[in-house]
Write a structure and sequence with these properties.
This protein is an all-alpha fold. The chain has one domain: Arp2/3 complex 21 kDa subunit ARPC3. Helices cover 77% and strands 2% of the residues. The protein has six helices and two strands; from the N terminus they run H-E-E-H-H-H-H-H. Helix 3 runs antiparallel to helix 4. The longest helix is centred in the C-terminal third of the chain and has 39 residues. The termini are close together.
């Protein structure tokens, strides 16, 4: 596959992530509910953990530069990188089953969203991590099945098509 195709798809997925995160999400000081995870998951499924992580990092940095909603904190960029890497480790060049998708989402939810992002928010807001944890746990519990179902459906109806029509036929070039 040509590098220009990867960069083009990365750019499209970055712009989708920014739109879904900055404009089509519900944001409170300690919880964000949105669908910005979908383009990152698709990027990692199509191109692997490295490109998935880079796509997530670029989306986080560009989103903060273009549409700031608070202070920039590099911890969230690190969390974004880890999210893309974890999706790639679980889903790149592997069968995209509900179980595999659920495992990736569960690891990201526990390690990145609940642990790391709660620590970052605690550092930024000055509130104790245990004080901001309950609403974050509730949001994570509610969003886990939504994320699994959304990623599965997007891959089923769009990801396979993109992979077969635009990416696989060019692997020899």
């Amino acid at each position: 596959m040509k590098n220009t195709q990867v960069i083009t798809f990365m750019g499209l997925l970055v712009s989708m992530e920014i739109m879904l995160t900055r404009f089509f999400a519900i944001q409170t000081p300690i919880v964000r509910i949105g669908f910005g995870f979908i383009p990152i998951a698709v990027s990692a499924m199509l191109f692997g953990p490295v490109i998935g992580g880079i796509t997530a990092m670029i989306a986080d940095i560009a989103g903060m530069m273009i549409f700031p909603k608070g202070v920039y904190f590099p911890g969230f960029t690190f969390s974004a990188l880890l999210t893309g890497v974890i999706f790639g480790l679980f889903l790149y060049r592997r069968e995209k089953t509900i179980i595999r998708i659920a495992a990736a989402v569960l690891i990201i939810t526990l390690a990145v969203d609940i642990v790391l992002n709660t620590v970052w928010l605690s550092m930024i807001t000055g509130k104790g991590a245990l004080a901001i944890l309950p609403p974050r746990l509730l949001k994570s519990l509610l969003m886990l099945p939504v994320q699994v179902f959304s990623i599965h459906m997007v891959w089923r109806y769009a990801g396979r098509f993109i992979e077969s029509k635009y990416l696989l036929k060019n692997t020899g070039s």
